[in-house]
């Protein structure tokens, strides 16, 4: 086991793509690392900026209103696509939430306009007629052979459909998920995770935070660490409250 470990997080568009506690997700990762004596570094990467994929272990992009997505999409494709693709291929962890999740795919169509996405995973999002998909949500996720529940909150107008052979993050237990129809939520491929769950995703689902931390540390140090358990009483209470809201939703 490596004696001194460090997790290097890259926050993509922290000023533009940041709603519903996206910043809280990053703080939560930071605290869980620091409580364990793991060094934590955050690098911000905004419009016009490029990054070296070898220098980051966990890439994070939060949610955004349609107008925020329009503002960053072209820049994302022009200045960051190659680096994000290389980070993914190299095994870095990548978490994209809601508006960020939509931009991982081929495109987001709305009001006669098509916003081009990164095209990293085979999925498309369309703002179809109908209400926004809003409310508490719970999904069942199996990342490592032991199924677990993620509980959170969704609020999106876009409906996302995965291409054939693309793996959803999970199966909807309560709520709408990707499109309110096929029972799938999110996407996963390599160590990339895209999801509509926010508000705040990680503090309500500490197990996912630890999964991302372990994946990121493995990327940096070449070995997946056994993370020291923490006192998760408050996190467990937050998880149960979110799950109860989803059940009653
Ligand atoms: N603007 C996107 C939609 O409404 C994503 C919203 C969000 O990130 N909450 O579909």
Q: How many structural domains in the coordinates? A: 1
Strand order of the largest sheet: 2-1-3-4-14-13
**Approximate strand percentage:** 25-35%
What is the chains' assembly state? single chain
Straight-line N-to-C gap:
44 Å
Please state the second-level CATH architecture: 3-Layer(aba) Sandwich
Mean pLDDT: 96
CATH hierarchy class name:
Alpha Beta
Number of strands: 14
Structural class call reads alpha/beta
The share of residues in helices is 25-40%
Series of secondary-structure elements, N-terminal to C-terminal: EHEEHEHEEEEEEEEEEHHH
CA radius of gyration: 17 Å
Low-confidence blocks of residues: none
Global morphology: globular
- Name of the CATH superfamily: Class I glutamine amidotransferase (GATase) domain
- Largest β-sheet summary: 6 strands, mixed
Ions, cofactors and other ligands present here are: glutamine
> CATH topology, anyone?
Rossmann fold
Helical stretch count? 6
Describe this structure in words.
The chain is of the alpha/beta class and 249 residues long. The chain has six helices and 14 strands. Helices cover 31% and strands 29% of the residues. The strands form three sheets. Strands 2-1-3-4-14-13 form a six-stranded mixed β-sheet, sandwiched between helices. It has a four-stranded mixed β-sheet with strand order 6-5-7-10. Strands 9-8-11-12 form a four-stranded antiparallel β-sheet, covered by helices on one side. Strand 1 (6-12), helix 1 (22-34) and strand 2 form a beta-alpha-beta unit. The radius of gyration is 17 Å and the shape is globular. Residues 19, 63-66, 69, 98-99, 155-158 line the site of glutamine. Glutamine binds next to helix 2 and strand 9.
